[in-house]
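Model it.
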Amino acid sequence: MRRSVLLKMSAAAVVALSLGVIPAGMASAQAGPLPYDEARGVFTFAAGLERTLPAVVQVTTLGQSRGPRSEDTEAQPFATGSGVIIDAAEGIIITNNHVIEGGSKYTVDLADGRLFDAVLIGTDKATDIAVLRIQGTGLSQVEIADSDTLRTGDLAFAVGYPLGLDQTLTMGVISGLNRSGLGDAVEDYIQTDAAVNSGNSGGPLLDSRGRLIGINTSILSGGGGGNDGIAFAVPTRIMMYVVGQIRETGEVRRGGTGALLSSLNAATARELGLNIVRGAVVRDVAPGSPAEAAGLQPDDVIVRIQSRPVANAGSVLATVGVAAPGSRLDVAYLRDGVERQTTVVVEMTEPGRIALGRDALVAHGAGFREARSGERGGQDHRIVVEAVEGGTPAAAAGLVAGDLVVSVNGRNVSSLQALSSALDSNGRSIRLVVSRGSETVTLTLNL
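Modeled.
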């Protein structure tokens, strides 16, 4: 009924609305579909949002200067971003890892003008989440909503301190859900067209009631790094798991299934005789792993996990990576073009574990396999990097999918078995030489 009232508004009513005057009987009709402030005669979301704004903070990261003068040796600001208080009693603030990375000291500015020193509790590079703590009274905190309830088309508000400005609020819509493809990391982003710029990183993405639905983390820009209406936020579903682990242990330990995955692309789809380009290809399964027990085999293509569509390998990592050990995950996959169902149990992975399968190797966050002749580019290197998981030693070293392994700690490797032995460093750093296009690149894996 309320909707029909809006659709049948007369031309006079439309003019009255444009002048800020609500025709008789319209105020009550608007109370449900769109918040209306009768005293001021305006539509507004301020009532819900104003409760959250005091919880949005500015984060400044300071680092040690190497200047020759004594006054230059003090920690100096080199990065700023935004954050949000999720626990006022404990002073817990969420921001992005890339906002605080490399810092030795952190300060937090509140909307009311107060300034606090902050302590870094922990970080997670794979999801770009960092947790800070301040000590203070009279703090506000945000209400947290379940990001799994979001729908494309919902209104969304980004809050932060962009481009040197004071606290700024922008509005848009949820443009898409379960976004991935920015890499093969733990990705399951909310996409929005709310304006997000430099300085917004780490700030909250809110729903129309002012509740936290995600942490703004990155944008896609056509050039110059400005806002083009494509921004991404880590959903609260992933954020809360990561933050819970950091608060409890200071780090994030992720589960695994023993399946080595890569993202499905057009070339692989043609090889497998498929007419889709979204999915995660099983390259190999570790012996004795949950993936093997679930019956997964090389060349299976995972298309859904826990009823979530799989865009690429990152989609699977995002679900497995926030599942508690022992969790049973429903998986839909294609084998020879026919869809099948199975259940995979998540097990806690051991740091630095090296898993050697029949046709692939997983070590230090990277997957390796034998290179096909067409991938070698006329070279004799026989091992190719299949995938790299974000937030791992392999990712931190700069290893990327498609790299051809030349040597490990000076040793040439021509088989997965030889590579497995060479990468078993007992905690030492590893010098890895790879061929990347026409270049030879030397990388260091710090374990």
